[in-house]
Amino acid sequence: MWRKMLLMLGACAVLTSCQGSQKEEQKTSIRIGISLYRSDDTFINNIRSQLEEKAKEYERRRGIKVILDIQDAKGSQNTQNNQAERFISLGCDVLCINPVDRMDATLIIDKAMTAQVPVVFFNRQPVEEDMDRWDQLYYVGVDAKETAVLQGRIVAELYGRQPEAVDLNGDGVVSYVLLEGESSHQDSLIRTEWSIQTLKDGKVPIEKIAGGIANWERSQASALMEQWLLAYPDTIELVVSNNDDMALGAIDALNRAGIEGMNVVGIDGTTPGLEALKNGKLLGTVCADKEIYAGAILELAASCALGEEPPEEYPLTDGTYYWAPQEIIVSEEGFLKEN
Ligand code: BGC
């Protein structure tokens, strides 16, 4: 009896591993389900284009077809949950999720765990308790504190070298306004705190005039800036923005008011952000390397889909997190701007 059972178990084990290797050998295509929190977000759009490029590059390099099913959750967690469920029912090998509500990734994780479909989250970081639930959950993003310190340095370095380029009215105080992203986003909270701290550490004599949440959006930031320009005429010297889109909104308001020479700093290095930088409208931005960012998402997802080890070129912190590198980009015009 025992012998028979052991033999049967042995046979099962052989069958399972054979099936496994057969499955891996046969895999000539992988299907990746991607849900974006909002496809009209400029930064997310830039990442999406890079993801499509990286998928093509991967296909050429590995000879494996990569099918990307990209969906827009349009700011609804409910829609995103349904999209994740649909991806799983369609047989996606892996999910890439840009969560709508980073505090509410539980349902997607539940479904993925039940179906044994790994998940690569990106840009909006689920809470640690969620990420710790399964070893097939990953996150790709940027280190928000690093971003903020780099942003603060753009202004601090200019002030150190040429104080009159930042303290525009020469009264010994740099009066600034602050544009913040969504209040629940990890990047807004940390960026706000550390950009300002870095200005203080860099001995820039700052004074806050006003600040507000513009939810990463150009139009909301533009409306806020317009109000501040009316409420505090001839006072504001610096705009610190949690991202490029809101910085561009502030620049829109400055253009409408016919004000020139005010320093505006952003984050992201989006396509329109870099354009504004070239035109000398934006003093500087902090740019995540989007090729590497998207490369990490795609390669990590593909390795999950194929049951391979995570790619060595994208080293993971704690086996779970990949932090994309970022750099300061400052316009020459911005640096040399005369007041
Ligand atoms: C980016 C913003 C973007 C947001 C979306 C942030 O990391 O800097 O531009 O709107 O992510 O989640």
Task: Describe what this molecule looks like in 3D.
- The structure is a single chain.
- With 339 residues, this protein is of the alpha/beta class.
- It has two domains: 29-141 and 290-323, 3-Layer(aba) Sandwich (Rossmann fold); 144-287 and 328-334, Rossmann fold.
- It is 49% helix and 19% strand.
- It contains twelve helices and twelve strands.
- The strands form three sheets. The chain has a six-stranded parallel sheet, sandwiched between helices.
- Helix 7 links the parallel strand 6 (174-180) and strand 7.
- Helix 2 (42-62) crosses helix 11.
- Residues 1-24 have low confidence and may be disordered.
Overall geometry: elongated
What topology, given as strand order, has the largest sheet?
Answer: 2-1-3-4-5-11
Number of domains: 2
Look at the helices and sheets and give the structural class.
alpha/beta
CATH homology superfamily name of the largest domain: Response regulator
Instruction: Write the CATH fold name of the largest domain.
Output: Rossmann fold
Give, in order, the helices and strands.
HEHEHEHEHEHEHEHEHEHEHEEH
Query: Spans with pLDDT under 50 lasting ≥5 residues?
Result: 1-24
Oligomer: single chain
The molecules bound to the chains, other than polymers, are: beta-D-glucopyranose
Q: Would you identify the CATH architecture of the largest domain? A: 3-Layer(aba) Sandwich
The termini sit apart by 92 Å
Average pLDDT confidence is 91
Number of helices: 12
What is the percent of helical residues? 40-55%
* Rg on CA atoms, Å: 24 Å
Note the main sheet: 6 strands, parallel
Number of strands: 12
Q: Tell me, what is the CATH class of the largest domain?
A: Alpha Beta
How big a fraction of the residues is strand?
A: 15-25%
